[in-house]
Specification:
Strand 1 and strand 2 form a beta hairpin. With 676 residues, this protein is α+β, with helices and mostly antiparallel strands. The protein folds into 2 domains: 432 residues, Anthranilate synthase (4-Layer Sandwich); 208 residues, Class I glutamine amidotransferase (GATase) domain (Rossmann fold). The protein is 25% helix and 29% strand. The protein has an 18-stranded antiparallel sheet that branches.
Length: 676
C-alpha cells in the first residue's frame, strides 16, 4: 500500500492523530490487527496483539488482556455434533495495544476504492442449489429430521492485492455503504510462529447483522434474526415491508429460531430467559425481523459459548441433527461461516479500545464480558488471492427453491456490491426508514399475540438466580437430541418440581424418580432400528410395568401411541413450527407443533393389542383430521405438541394439568397461577 509515512521527528500527536491505525495500514502483513465498529458506534476500534491458536473454547487464554477469538464451525465437535472437519484453527488475537479513531477519520485514511478483484461466481450453480433445497424439504423435513435447515454456498473471486490493502479497502467500503450492522470489522491474523510452515493467515472483513451472544454483568443476551425482505432495486417500500411482515413462511421461520435459541437460554440461565421485541432490522439491501432474548447467568463466557454453538439462524433445528443434515448436503467444509467472532474484555478495566496499551487486569474468567457476533455477510481472503463470500438460506416446509436461491444471492450481494465484486446498481442503499412507516410497528407487535406469556413476561425469578432447588416431586427428563427438554425442565421447575435432564444414551435408572418425562427428538417413530426409538419403547415398558408416572412428548408420544395400537403415519404436510388450536381432553389450547408424523385415531392394531401399553386402554384426544393430540390413562399421559414452545400460549396450563394427572394429584384452582 502506498502511503505517506509519518515523519520521524513529528510533534506530539494531535487529538485527531491515529498512530496505531497508521501502523496497521503501513504494515507488511505480519502485524495481527482488528478494525471494528460496533452497532451505533461513532468510532472505529483498532486492536493489535499476539496470535495464539487454541484447540478448544476452554483454551482461549483469558489471563487479563482482551482477546478476540475467531471460532470456526468445526468447533461444533466440542458438543459431539457431526461436522466436516477442515482443520481450520480457532485463532485468537491477544490484544496488547489499542486506540479509538472516529469513523470520519478512519474513512479519510483508509483506501478510497476497493481493490481490483475478478468475480468467478457461485461454487454451486443456481439450478444445483435449487435441487439441494428440494431434497432437504422432501428428504429431511418431510421425514421428520427437523423443522428447518440452513444450506450454504459460496461466491468466489480472486485478487492480486496484498492482504492489508485488501482488508483495509473492504472495511472502508463496508463502513461507507452498509447500514444496520451489529459489527463492521476487518481481522488479519497471521499463523503463529509455532504453526506449520504452510499454515494460512486468517483474513476476513464483513458487516454482520446478528449478535450471537453477549455477557455483561451477569446478563446474557441472544439476538435471533430470521425472515428476509429483499429490497427492490428502487428501494424498500411501506407496502413491500408490510407484505413481508404478513408472510406466513417468514413468520414461522422467525418463531422457529426463537424457539431454538430459547432452548439455549434455558440451558444458560436458571431463570430461563425472556423474549423482548420483535424489531425490524433494516440494512442497505435487506431487512430482517428479530427478537432479543435475555436472562441471567454465572457461567464462564467460554462455557456459555460452547453451550450455544451454533446459532439456529445459520444451522437449523433441532441443532444436533441440523449439523448432521448439513454434513449430508454440503460437500465442502464451512470454514468460519456460521461460526462467530468472540471479543472477551475484562470487566471494570480500561476498555480495549482506549488509546493506551491494554495490560493485564484480572485473571478470573468470570470478570470478563463477552461480545460475540455471528460470522455471516463476511468476505474471506485466502492465500494465493482466492476470495470467498459464503451465504445460506433457511429452508422450511413452505420454502420455494427458486426463492431460496434468490435469498442467497441477496444476502451475498450487500457484501459483494460494497467490495466491487458485483455492480452496485443505480438504486439507493436506503431510500426510506421502514420502521417509521405507518402500520409497521403495529404489524410487528401483532406477532406477540401468538407467543406464550410465560416466555414474554418477566417470570418470578427473572432478576435473581435461584439459590435452592425446588422441593416438589423428582423428575428426570430424557433428551432425545432435541434441547426443547431444557425449556420443559425450566417450566417444570417453575411448577415446583425438582428436575434433572439425562441424554437418552446415558440413562441409568428410569424408575428412581417420581416422574419420567420422555422428551421430543428428530426421526421416524416407526423406525425400530433407530436406537433412540428403541430406547423410548423400552423405557415406556419399564415404567408401565412398574406402575410409575410417565409423560411422553412429541416423538415419545408417537412411540407410546404406536405401542398402544394406534397406527403412525406421515402427515399430508409437516406441522413444523406452527401453532394450532388443539383439543386436549375437552379443552381447547393454543399449542406449538413440530411434527412430520402423527398417530391416527383408527381401529386399534390387532397385532399390538397384546402389548402392555395397549391393555391400559388409554383415552385418546384428537383433532378434526383424526390425528391424536394427546393420550392419558392411570399414571400415563402424552402430548403431540410442544407445551414448552414459545408458540404454546396455553402450554404451561396443559403441562400443569397433565403432570397433576400422572402424579395422581387432584387439580386445585390455585394452580392456575402458574400460567403467568
Amino acid at each position: 500500500m502506498s502511503r505517506t509515512p509519518r515523519s520521524a521527528g513529528s510533534a506530539t500527536p494531535t487529538a485527531t492523530s491515529h498512530p496505531l491505525l497508521d501502523r496497521v495500514l503501513d504494515s507488511d502483513g505480519s502485524l495481527p490487527f482488528v478494525l471494528l465498529r460496533r452497532e451505533g458506534g461513532t468510532e472505529v476500534e483498532v486492536l493489535v496483539g499476539d496470535v495464539v491458536d487454541a484447540e478448544l473454547l476452554g483454551d482461549i487464554p483469558l489471563d487479563g488482556a482482551p482477546v478476540l477469538a475467531v471460532v470456526p464451525f468445526r468447533q461444533a465437535h466440542e458438543r459431539g455434533f457431526t461436522v466436516h472437519d477442515d482443520g481450520v484453527p480457532l485463532r485468537c488475537i491477544v490484544v496488547r495495544e489499542s486506540e479509538r479513531v472516529s469513523v470520519a477519520d478512519a474513512i479519510a485514511v483508509l483506501p478510497p476504492e476497493p481493490v481490483a478483484a475478478e468475480p468467478l461466481g457461485f461454487d454451486i450453480p443456481d439450478a444445483e442449489y435449487a435441487g439441494i433445497v428440494r431434497r432437504v424439504i422432501d428428504d429431511e423435513i418431510g421425514r421428520g429430521a427437523g423443522a428447518n435447515f440452513v444450506v450454504m454456498r459460496r461466491f468466489e473471486a480472486r485478487t492480486d492485492a496484498a492482504p492489508v490493502a485488501t482488508l483495509a479497502s473492504w472495511f472502508r467500503a463496508l463502513l461507507t455503504h452498509e447500514v444496520g450492522s451489529y459489527w463492521t470489522f476487518a481481522v488479519h491474523a497471521p499463523a503463529p510462529a509455532e504453526s506449520a510452515p504452510a499454515a494460512e493467515a486468517l483474513s476476513l472483513a464483513g458487516a454482520t447483522p446478528e449478535r450471537h451472544l453477549t455477557l455483561h454483568d451477569g446478563v446474557a443476551r441472544m439476538n435471533p434474526i430470521s425472515g428476509t425482505y429483499r429490497h427492490p432495486a428502487t428501494g424498500p417500500t411501506r407496502d413491500g415491508v408490510l407484505e413481508f411482515l404478513r408472510d406466513t413462511k417468514e413468520n414461522e421461520e422467525l418463531f422457529m429460531v426463537v424457539d431454538e435459541e430459547m432452548k439455549m437460554m434455558s440451558a444458560l440461565c436458571p431463570d430461563g430467559g425472556r423474549i423482548v421485541g420483535p424489531y425490524l432490522k433494516q440494512m442497505a439491501r435487506l431487512s430482517h425481523t428479530e427478537y432479543l432474548l435475555e436472562g441471567r447467568t454465572t457461567l464462564d463466557p467460554r462455557e456459555a459459548l460452547r453451550l450455544t454453538m451454533f446459532a439456529p439462524t445459520v444451522t437449523g433445528s433441532p441443532m444436533e441433527n441440523a449439523c448432521t443434515v448439513i454434513t449430508r448436503h454440503e460437500t465442502r467444509p464451512r470454514g468460519y461461516y456460521s461460526g462467530f467472532l468472540a471479543l472477551f474484555e475484562p470487566d471494570g478495566a480500561r476498555g480495549p479500545a482506549d488509546s493506551e496499551p491494554a495490560g493485564p487486569v484480572a485473571a478470573n474468567p468470570g470478570s470478563y464480558s463477552l461480545d460475540a457476533p455471528i460470522l455471516i455477510r463476511t468476505a474471506y481472503l485466502h492465500d494465493g488471492g482466492r476470495v470467498t463470500v459464503p451465504a445460506g438460506a433457511t429452508l422450511v416446509r413452505h420454502s420455494v427453491p427458486e426463492h431460496e436461491v434468490a435469498e442467497t444471492r441477496a444476502k451475498a450481494a450487500g457484501v459483494l456490491a460494497s467490495l466491487g465484486l458485483v455492480p452496485r446498481g443505480a438504486g439507493p442503499d436506503v431510500a426510506v426508514d421502514l420502521n417509521a412507516q405507518p402500520g409497521v410497528a403495529e404489524a410487528l407487535a401483532a406477532r406477540n399475540g401468538q407467543l406464550a406469556e410465560f416466555w414474554v413476561r418477566p417470570q418470578d425469578a427473572v432478576h435473581a438466580v435461584p439459590t435452592t432447588a425446588p422441593t416438589g416431586p423428582s423428575v428426570v427428563i430424557v433428551d432425545h437430541e432435541d434441547q426443547f427438554t431444557t425449556m420443559l425442565a425450566h417450566q417444570l421447575r417453575h411448577l415446583g418440581m425438582n428436575t434433572r435432564m439425562v441424554r437418552w444414551d446415558a440413562v441409568d435408572d428410569v424408575l428412581a424418580d417420581d416422574l419420567l418425562v420422555l422428551g421430543p427428538g428428530p426421526g421416524d417413530p416407526r423406525d425400530q432400528q433407530d436406537p433412540r426409538i428403541a430406547s423410548i419403547a423400552r423405557r415406556i415398558h419399564e415404567r408401565v410395568a412398574a406402575g410409575r408416572p410417565l409423560l411422553a412428548v412429541c416423538l415419545s408420544h408417537q412411540v407410546l401411541a404406536g405401542l398402544a395400537g394406534f397406527p403412525i403415519r406421515a402427515l399430508p404436510a409437516p406441522r413444523q413450527g406452527v401453532r394450532l388450536d388443539a383439543d386436549v381432553f375437552g379443552t381447547t389450547a393454543a399449542i406449538g407443533y413440530y411434527n412430520t408424523f402423527g398417530a391416527q385415531l383408527t381401529t386399534i392394531d390387532a397385532a399390538a393389542a397384546a402389548d402392555p401399553v395397549a391393555r391400559l386402554a388409554l383415552e385418546p384426544s384428537f383433532d378434526g383430521d383424526g390425528v391424536l393430540t394427546a393420550l392419558r390413562g392411570p399414571g400415563v399421559a402424552s402430548v403431540q405438541g410442544h407445551l414448552e414452545s414459545v408458540l404454546s400460549a396455553d402450554g404451561l396450563t396443559v403441562l400443569d394439568a397433565l403432570t397433576l394427572h400422572v402424579l395422581g394429584v387432584p387439580a386445585e384452582p390455585s394452580r392456575a397461577r402458574h400460567r403467568s
